[in-house]
Prior knowledge:
By secondary structure, the chain is mainly alpha-helical. It has one domain (2-398). The protein is built from 19 helices and no strands.
Amino acid sequence: MLVTVLMFLVILFLPRLIVVAADKAPFLNTLGSVFLCYLAGLLLSFPFKAGGADITLASDFSSVLVCVGMPLILFSADLPALKKLARPMLISFGLGTAAVIVAAAGSYFLFRNLVPDALNISGMLVGTYTGGTPNMFAIGSALGAGSDRIALLQTADMIGGGSYFLLLISVLPRLLKKVLPEYKPVSNQPAEDPELAARYTGEFSGHKQSVKPLRAFLSRLGLVGLAVACFAVAAGICLLLPSQYGNTGLAKLGEYTVVIMLVVTTGGVALSFVKKVRYAPGSYSTGQYFILMFSVVMGLCFDLSVIGGVVTILVMLLTIQYGTVLLHLLLGRLWKIDYHTLMITSTAGVFGPAFIIPVAKALRNDEIILPGILCGILGYVIGNYLGIGVANLLRLAGG
């Protein structure tokens, strides 16, 4: 019992220590807090398992973490601001979204006999390359993908994503400049809204924005309470639904993980339209903290015996990732999207809002920072719906 209590204390507080360390060490910051939390959890799993800690209880706790963390991330989504986006930016993001759906669907049929759980992987990567890592975790939980499969996919994504990010900030600007039109400044870009720009660029600047001290975290208990309420509503709805297996009470929740995730996502989006919630400081960073705790649990629950599967998953991931990028480029050329807009919307889809600023700096174009972040937030909003929807459509199509 004491070892289990200690394990939960590690889950609660280790992410804070890791983010502080990452802020002080550039190399650790390059690896990313999500991966570091996952790695730390994996290393600590050996003594905890040897000591008799209840890993199953931690695994059950992880489902709650992602269900609470997702609406917290969505609370800060300023969806009304999307109307300020220039038309090419919205078109390019839409083309990127269509590209990932096509690439993921095609890869499923290509790899379904080679990669175990290819269906769920396709669904998770649709959400990941529309929104970001939180969507991967949320969709994986909704589809019933095991923690081992999610952890392997996260590892593969770090490898594939790292290679594409290096291309974005190095050779791609010069290459795409030769095949796509030049960027033309747009006077009505939302960068003219200084308050909105300051809020989002500060949130996603990468400077200690992910996790705040415990005192600040406790001051956000109201936001956490709203996210818990979203989860409670979702659980309540599922308890009213009939069970296919004769389960009663809380045992029924496992049958309706998709419903739970869609309800908490919808709740987070709906509450983002309440200005007091949307402008409350810290909802995104608090949600990210829940995702980091989830990453620690993933590491604790990981089974090393399945590590060999990372190679085949990596091949499938790279096919989807670079298939998405190439198809987005082809569609962008057809629609005459300029190379700055295409690159920043590709970044928003493949990586999410946090990577917008360094790519914009590589392009020497600060005007596209806020539009890119808004596209990334839109990806967070739609990612769960698309990922879960595509996975279920592929299940029907694949028999």
